[in-house]
Amino acid sequence: MSDRPKNVVILGSTGSIGESALKVARDLPDRMRVIGLAANRSSEKLANQVAEWGVKEGCLADSTLLNDFKSRLPAGVTAHTGEEGLVEMATLPEADLVLIAIVGTAGLRPALAAIEAGKDIAVASKEILVMAGEAVMTAAREKGVRVLPVDSEHNAIFQCLEGRKATDVSRLILTASGGPFRKKPVAELADVTVEQALNHPTWEMGPKITIDSATLFNKGLEMIEARWLFDVEMDRVDVIVHPQSIVHSMVEFIDGSVLAQLSVNDMCFPIQYAVTWPARVANSLRPLDFAELARLEFEAPRWDDFPALRLAQRAGTVGGTLPAVMNAANEIAVAKFLENSLRFPKIWETVEETMDAHDVIDHPKLDEILAADAWAREFASGQLT
């Protein structure tokens, strides 16, 4: 074990994952040293974080707010901006680990740049592996760097698989809370409101990922992530609804045994393990009290009523540019729903229509992935005008 803390750059430090990562750094100063922070538009909040943590590098992705950001920074801090700024942050020479928690596609180029620079990456942004899982994992293998999962589900699988042979694994089982509409009759889904969809039963998250949890697209994206992170076929990635969100995922082995990872539903747990891996480190987080658990429930997801899982399974099986298209169309549809200009079931319909219209490119390069993403956004937007 190194005798110094791990130098960490956090891309997306003002969001919920970024704030949880800073909690971990505060709790474990001898293990994690924050050396760079980046955000999209939260100029004041990012500047306050830069000042609090004493970092010398900060990046505000939205260049229109750069002057405001600079005016708030302490003396001696280098301000970066735009996609190039995110790439510069991801490749800081002293960085050991880059935590990528940027919502949307903006984290893709920084992730690939970090890998190219020989940095381990901790991935919280689903879009990176959904859009470019093949490219990212191939590059990581070639450079000998690690792609560490931050999502609670994938981090759980990562823990369950440690020391196990890939040939011993039968299937990966992702758990899902089921979202706020788990028990709602399908006939009533057309009338759900934005406020209802944002009322997640177990996790506090940003609006986009909360809607994805309600549609189950969040779990669909995670299925594709798992396919690439753990190098398994899509038909070996399964989903089970677990409303308590205590069992974060499970691995079933060929002998019928199942290993599960359990903890209180706090994102600090998976973030800490991604940062401190392979070590386990004592912390101030609340441990699980089994005496307090009344019961742990499991049920099959409603595949027909919530088509996101089926669409994700299709996208992950076909591969190529189709996962990027699915992701982009979903982002457009969710944005429209959040504006109160789209009914809830139309999110699924828009994604499927966009996927059906796409000519898939196999083994795409980065520019082809981004072109497919742009095409899907334009097509989906056209369907909704």
- By CATH reckoning, the class of the largest domain would read Alpha Beta
CATH topology of the largest domain: Rossmann fold
What would CATH call the architecture of the largest domain?
A: 3-Layer(aba) Sandwich
Radius of gyration, CA atoms, in whole angstroms = 20 Å
H/E element sequence: EHEHEHEHEHEHEHEHHHEEEHHHHH
| Biggest sheet record | 7 strands, parallel
Structural class, please? alpha/beta
Task: Name the average pLDDT.
Answer: 95
The total of beta strands comes to 11
Number of helices: 15
Percent helix: 40-55%
Low-confidence stretches: none
Provide the CATH superfamily of the largest domain.
NAD(P)-binding Rossmann-like Domain
What order do the helices and strands come in, and which of them pair?
Blueprint: E1 6-11, H1 16-27, E2 32-39, H2 43-53, E3 57-60, H3 66-72, E4 78-81, H4 82-90, E5 97-100, H5 108-116, E6 120-123, H6 126-143, E7 147-149, H7 152-161, E8 169-176, H8 194-197, H9 207-215, H10 217-229, E9 237-241, E10 247-253, E11 258-262, H11 268-276, H12 308-318, H13 322-338, H14 346-357, H15 366-383
Parallel strand pairs: 1-2, 1-5, 2-3, 3-4, 5-6, 6-7, 8-9
Antiparallel strand pairs: 8-10, 10-11
Helix pairs in contact: 2-3, 4-5, 5-6, 6-10, 6-13, 9-13, 10-12, 13-14, 13-15, 14-15
Describe this structure in words.
By secondary structure, the protein is α/β, with parallel strands linked by helices. The chain has three domains: about 5-150, 3-Layer(aba) Sandwich (Rossmann fold), CATH 3.40.50; about 155-265 and about 285-315, no CATH class; about 320-385, Rna Polymerase Sigma Factor, Chain: A (Orthogonal Bundle). The protein has helices spanning about 15-25, 45-55, 65-70, 80-90, 110-115, 125-145, 150-160, 195, 205-215, 215-230, 270-275, 310-320, 320-340, 345-355, 365-385, and strands spanning about 5-10, 30-40, 55-60, 80, 95-100, 120-125, 145-150, 170-175, 235-240, 245-255, 260. The chain has a seven-stranded parallel β-sheet, with helices on both faces. It has a four-stranded mixed β-sheet with strand order 9-8-10-11, with helices on one face. α5 runs parallel beside α6, α6 (about 125-145) runs parallel beside α10 and α6 runs antiparallel to α13. It is globular, with a radius of gyration of 20 Å. The protein starts with 5 loop residues before the first strand and ends with a helix. The mean pLDDT is about 95.
